[in-house]
Amino acid sequence: MYWTDGRLRPPLESFTNSSVWVNIDPALTSRMWLPTTYIDHVKEIRMPSLLILPHSLRIASSGLMRYSMSVITKLACPMDFSAYPFDQQKCYMKLESYQYRAFEVTYSWHDNGIQTSSDIRTDHFIPAFEIIKGSIVHDNGKSSFSSVRVDIILSRKATYHLMNTYIPSSLFVFVSWLTFLIPPEHLPGGTVLTITTLLTIVSMQESPKVSYAKAIDQWMMFCIVLVFTVLVEYTYVVHLHFRAEQLRMVSVEPKRNPRQTGGTGSQANSPRPELYTKWKVRFERLSPRVLIVIFIIFNITWFLVFCVQLIV
Questions:
Q1: Which among 69, 146, 233, 268 could bridge 107 via Cys, Cβ 3.0 to 4.6 Å?
Q2: Helices vs. strands in the chain: H and E counts, helices first
Q3: 159-251+271-311 has which fold?
Q4: Taking every annotated instance into account, which residue ranges of this chain make up the domain Neurotransmitter-gated ion-channel ligand-binding (predicted)?
């Protein structure tokens, strides 16, 4: 922080030709005027130290003061996970005067702005910093206070979720389509394959716990519904197959005496097995094509919506 205090004038002999600043013991800050700066919505502040506190105090010949300290700050940041994991979070850090009003103390960024290290790396985000130029005046209804602000843009890296969520869930959807290749006679094999795939996809969900649906939730729910549709389709095809087989067995049985059966013995009104076979073949042909087209359309729409939102 820089500020000018005209009451402080160090001796000129303290300066040399190569020195613009004179170091002062930081302990003297307890007897000096200091700006009452605080960080808005801060949760925790820590000062790492070994032997002494990492802070310094310097003064120029004009009375310009420079106070610097090393602190680790933890800030609260409201986030919106609607587009997770293609979301971009915007946090901010605001330095504001707690005691002095805007007409008494004005905050503004130094000509050098802020300096960030090129070594800043995070596992899940790509950080960027944007300075809000000029002084920001905050009016709480009774008084106005000056402040400065820097925005922190956190762009999430989607590679992790592409490799651990989207590609595996897509492969499991493809595995469920293998049920179309299993004949209805092998009922246990097709049923076990589809149900196992469904349970696996349900257990794959991993995302922040919030009260609204996220983009990844929409994707996983669509995959679950798609696999469940395959299960329903396979069950219905098996039903049509065994129903047709049952009617064929009935049709080849010898006709009984109408007096013994208590009826006329006519089977003209009974459904024909060819009808069930026809519907079974139709379902086996159309279902894979329809589900594949729906999956492709959803992929294109879903990625376009959230990728465009990320770019904008």
A1: 146
A2: 6, 10
A3: Methane Monooxygenase Hydroxylase; Chain G, domain 1 (1.20.58)
A4: 1-157
